[in-house]
Amino acid sequence: MIVEATRLRKSYGSTEVLAGVDLGVREGSVLALLGPNGAGKTTTVRILTTLTKPDGGRARIAGYDVLREPAQVRGVISLTGQYAAVDENQTGRENLVMIGRLMHLGRPTARRRTCELLERFGLSDAMDRRVKTYSGGMRRRLDLAMSLIARPRVIFLDEPTTGLDPASRSTMWDAIAELVRDGTTILLTTQYLEEADRLADHIVLLDHGRIVATGTADSLKAQVGGERIDLRFADEPQLLKATGVLRAAAANGLVLSVPSDGSAGHLHQVLDVLRDNGVEPERVSSHRPTLDDVFLTLTA
Amino acid sequence: MSHQGVGAALTDAATMIDRSVRLARRNLDTLFAAILLPLLMMALFVYVFGGAINTGTEYVNYVVPGILLLTTGYGAASTAMAVTDDMTSGMIDRLRSLPIHSFAVLTGHVTASIARNAASTAIVILASLAMGFRPTASAGEWLAAIGLLLLYVVALSWLAAGLGVIAKTVESASTLSFFMLFLPYLSSAFVPPETMPSWLRPVSEHQPITPTVEAVRSFLIGTPMGNAGWIALAWCCGLLLFSVVLATSLYRRRTGR
C-alpha cells in the first residue's frame, strides 16, 4: 500500500469531521473518496498531504509518516486542490516553471517538462498569456499540469471537476485517465458517482466522517440494486399480470422496477415478454443508481 | 534528502522572490502605490503645502526624509495584500504541499517588498534632487541614512507580512495597513511637532516615525541629531523582532489547522 491511513480522527471545535477513517491505496491504482459536502473528504486529503495535523491516527505515504517526515512526503506527492491554485498574474509557462523549480528540478529540466505538459494539456497556444485570461477548464488543466511537473508517485485530486462545464469535465477525465495509464497512483475526491465510476478502481464512501461502504463501482451499485427499468402501468390488473410474468421485479404503486444491465437488448427483451403476455406498460424509464440512491441505501 | 540542503533553500527563496517581484511588477495598483503615489505626495507637499509650512529650512529639505518613510508605508500595504491573497487562495495549500521551507512564502514576499521599496526609495530620492532637495551628507552619512531606512523597510515589510496573515480578505489587509500610511502624518515628517496641539505632541514624539525621520534628516541635511539615531535604531530593531515573531507564529497557527 503506497497510501496507508489508520483511524484518522479530526475535530474542529466540537464538530467531529473525521471519526476514525482507514484507507489503503495500492501503488498504481485509483481510489475515489466519494461523499457529499461535509463528509470529511477534503480533511482526509489535507491530512494525507501534510497540510493538516490529525487529532489521532496515523498515515504513511510511500513509507513516510505524514507527521514525522512531512518533507519526504511532500517530495513524492502532489496536490490539486478544489480551487485552481495558479497565479493569475503569471503566464501558464511561468507558473509551471516556478513549481518545477520549487520541486528542485534543474532549470533545463523544469523548462523541458513545462513544454511537454503544456503540449499534453492543450495549453501550448496560451502558454505566454497571463492565467487571468484563461477559462475555468484551462485553469484546471494548468493546475493539474503543475501537479505533474516532478512526476509525483501519488497524486491527490480534490474534487477535480467541481464547477466545470460538461466539455471541460470530459477533458479533465481524459487527462486523469491518461495518468492512470501511466501507472500513477491517484487518490481523488468527488461528489459524483459517475466520476468515481469512470476513474476509480476502488471507491470509499464517506459520510459524516465515517466510511459507510467500500468496494468497486460495480459492487457499490450492486449494493443499491444497480441499474433498473421502471415500468408504469395504467391499472392494478395490468400491474399484477406483469408482476406474474417478470420475476425479480418489485412494485411500488403502479410502477414495477426490473433490475437491468442497462442495455437496449434487455429493454427489448422485457417489453417483448410483456407484449407476448398481452401487457403494455404506459411509460418506461430506465434508472441508473445515483449518489443519492447509494447514500439513501447505505446510510439509512 | 538533498531537498533540505542550504543550496535548495536558497533556490527556493530565489524562486519565491522571483515570483513575488514578477507579480508585484504586473499589478498596476501596486506599481502605482509604490512609485507614482509617493512622487505625487512629494510634489503636493513641496509645491502646494510647503509654502505655508515654516520649518526654519527650505521645506523640500525638511520634507524629503518624511516622504521616504511614507513611500515605504505604501509599499508595505501592497505587501500585506499580496500575502493575504496567497493565504486566502488555493495557492497556500499548493505551496505548502511542496518540499520547501514552510516560511518560504513569507520570506519571498518580504524580500520582494524590500526590493520594491529600495527601488521606489531610490526613485523618490532622484526625483527629490530634481525638485531642489540639497542634502549636505558625506558618503558615510549617506550610508548611515540608507542603512537606517533599510532597517525600517525590513521591519515594516515583516509587519506587513504579519498583517497579511491576520487579514481574512485582501480588502481588510488594505484596511489594516492604513495605520502604516497614517502614522507619518502624526510625526515630525511633515510639520515640526511643536506646531501640534499639546495633547497630540506625545503621540508624535513616542512613535517610530519621528525618531527615524529626525535621524535620517540629521544624516542628510545636518539638523541636530540628539538621541534620535539611537532611539530610531531601538524602535526599528524592536519593531523588526516583534514583526518577525508575529508573522511567523501567526502563519504557523493559520496553516497548522
UniProtKB/TrEMBL annotation, chain A:
GO cellular component: plasma membrane
Ranges in coiled-coil conformation: none
PROSITE patterns: ABC_TRANSPORTER_1, ABC_TRANSPORTER_2
Membrane topology: Peripheral membrane protein
GO molecular function per UniProt: ATP binding; ATP hydrolysis activity
One Pfam family cited in the UniProt record for this chain: ABC_tran
UniProt cross-references to InterPro entries, sorted A to Z: AAA+_ATPase (IPR003593), ABC_transporter-like_ATP-bd (IPR003439), ABC_transporter-like_CS (IPR017871), ABC_transporter_ATP-binding (IPR050763), DrrA (IPR005894), DrrA1/2-like_C (IPR025302), P-loop_NTPase (IPR027417)
A biological-process GO annotation: doxorubicin transport
NCBIfam families xref list: drrA
Record protein name field: ABC-2 type transport system ATP-binding protein
From TrEMBL, chain B:
Residues that span the membrane, as ranges: 31-53, 59-83, 142-166, 173-191, 228-251
Pfam families found in the cross-reference section: ABC2_membrane
Subcellular location: Cell membrane; Membrane
GO molecular function: ABC-type transporter activity
GO cellular component, one term: ATP-binding cassette (ABC) transporter complex
GO biological process: response to antibiotic
Top-level taxon of origin: Bacteria
Protein name listed in UniProt: Transport permease protein
